[in-house]
Amino acid sequence: MTYDFDRIISRFGTNSAKWDGMAQAHGKDMIALSVADMDLQAPPKVVEQMVESARHGIYGYTDPFPPYFEAVQHWLDKVYGWQVPQEWIVFSPRIVQAVSVLIQRFTNEATGF
Question: Has this prediction a pTM greater than 0.70?
Answer without folding.
Answer: no
